[in-house]
Design goal:
This protein is an alpha/beta fold. The strands form 4 sheets. A 7-stranded mixed β-sheet has the order 2-10-9-8-7-3-4, sandwiched between helices. It has 2 domains: 119 residues, Aspartate Aminotransferase, domain 1, CATH 3.90.1150.10; 235 residues, Aspartate Aminotransferase, domain 2 (3-Layer(aba) Sandwich). The mean pLDDT is 98. Helix 2 packs antiparallel against helix 13, helix 5 packs across helix 11 and helix 13 packs across helix 16. The longest helix is centred in the C-terminal third of the chain and has 33 residues. The structure holds (2S)-2-hydroxybutanedioic acid.
């Protein structure tokens, strides 16, 4: 039976990251997977996480299962982090949330809930979007529609086209939005544009589903959640998938949360019960370690301050790398790369063809996705000139 199964191609992102790791060229540059790397090319552990981990290891007395909804301190901390501590939604107890295995787990739980509530729901996704959205949501049986989003000519959001396409989204449909730091293009909506989409949701009755995996890495923790919070304040219903992979550096610990904003407290509790049944079908209960660490960081004033300070420094460094790369590329190529500085978070498209991206890999050991999506956080003082020279050479 099993022999009938063929070998599948490697995942587009993970496969390229592995190819880069296997490249013997000491000058290789890894701009593939969305991982923050410091000047030494290391993905660091936050000081606050390290401290929480020391305390956890010293105090932990059991490895019994986590409660199905996850760690309470984590869930509460995530609600406050994402929605804001003084959110009216929290005051009115209109949010239910469960811990999930990473942002991916949260997306999947969200998809299960959508399917249970509206089996024929169409999920509107931006063109382009993170490629993993398709298997994560599609394998539950949901179908997709695409809305125009990124305009390669202007290197920005084509908001008129987006709004025009979303006019076709109706009650029972879901519109998937990137909370901040759009993956893969880095071009985000302005707060005013978030307001327009919120008004469309009110008028047309579709439900927004916000994937927020990079809060704190664009402009800051509060600013990056402003669009999401605007929607939470205005709309009766909202689904959110949040991740601690990037902003707490808990990538391998698979730490995320699915949040459901509902019309009232009873409905929020009903949604949690639905999420728990869905989780039991898939993975039973969430992993402990990452959420116990994040829960400690979020609930301790000292650790939270230390974490926020380190995250701010990370965010500033990414924005510094954005302007540094823009300057180098403009100087060497004589072309306009101003968009790199305007875009947010880890990713930007360089605007190269798949052939140029391939040449960069083959001839220079510079690895980016075929779409020319780069992880800006993979750039450092040691590789920025080499990178800018290589890109200029293939232009
Ligand atoms: C990425 O887009 O590189 C990250 O979100 C990591 C992943 O799982 O794809």
């Amino acid at each position: 039976m099993l022999e009938k199964l063929e070998r599948l191609p490697a995942d587009t992102i993970l496969g390229l990251a592995a190819a880069c790791r296997a490249d013997p060229n000491p000058d290789r540059v890894d701009l593939t997977i969305g991982i923050y790397m410091d000047e030494q090319g290391v993905c660091p552990v936050f000081g606050a996480v390290r401290e929480a981990q020391r305390a956890l290891v010293a105090e932990e007395v059991t490895k019994a299962y986590m409660p199905p909804a996850g760690d309470e301190a984590f869930n509460l901390g995530m609600q406050r982090l994402v929605l804001g501590a003084d959110s009216p939604v929290l005051r009115d107890r209109r949010v239910g949330s469960v811990q999930a295995p990473g942002g991916c787990g949260a997306l999947r739980i969200g998809a299960e809930i959508i399917r249970a509530a509206a089996p024929d729901a169409r999920v509107w996704v931006s063109d382009p979007t993170w490629p993993v959205h398709f298997p994560l949501l599609g394998s539950v049986g949901l179908s997709f529609e695409t809305y125009r989003y990124y305009d390669p000519a202007s290197h920005g959001v084509d908001f008129d086209a987006m709004a025009q396409d979303l006019k076709k989204a109706v009650a029972g449909d879901v519109v998937l939005l990137h909370g901040c730091c759009h993956n893969p293009c880095g071009a985000d909506l302005s707060l005013e544009q978030w307001g327009v989409i919120a008004a469309m949701a009110e008028r047309q009755g579709f439900t927004p589903f916000i994937d927020i995996a990079y809060q704190g890495l664009g402009d800051g923790l509060e600013q990056d959640a402003a669009g999401l919070r605007l929607m939470a304040d205005r709309l009766p219903e909202l689904i959110i998938a949040a991740s601690c992979s990037k902003n707490m550096g808990l990538y391998r610990e698979r730490t995320g949360a699915a949040l459901f904003i509902c019309r009232d407290e009873a409905n929020a509790q009903a949604l949690v019960s639905q999420a728990l049944v869905a989780a039991r079908r898939i993975y039973s209960m969430p992993p402990a370690h990452g959420a116990l660490l994040a829960g400690r960081v979020l609930s301790s004033e000292t650790l939270a301050v230390s974490w926020r300070t380190e995250l701010e420094a990370m965010c500033q460094r990414i924005n510094g790398l954005r302007s540094g790369l823009r300057q180098k590329l403009e100087k060497k190529s004589g072309r306009d790369f101003g968009f790199i500085e305007r875009e947010k978070g880890m990713f930007s498209f360089l605007g190269l063809s798949p052939e140029q991206a391939l040449r960069l890999r083959r001839e220079y050991s510079v690895y980016m996705l075929d779409s020319s999506r780069i992880n800006v956080a993979g750039v450092n003082a040691g590789n920025i000139d080499y990178l800018a020279d290589a890109v200029t050479a293939v232009l």
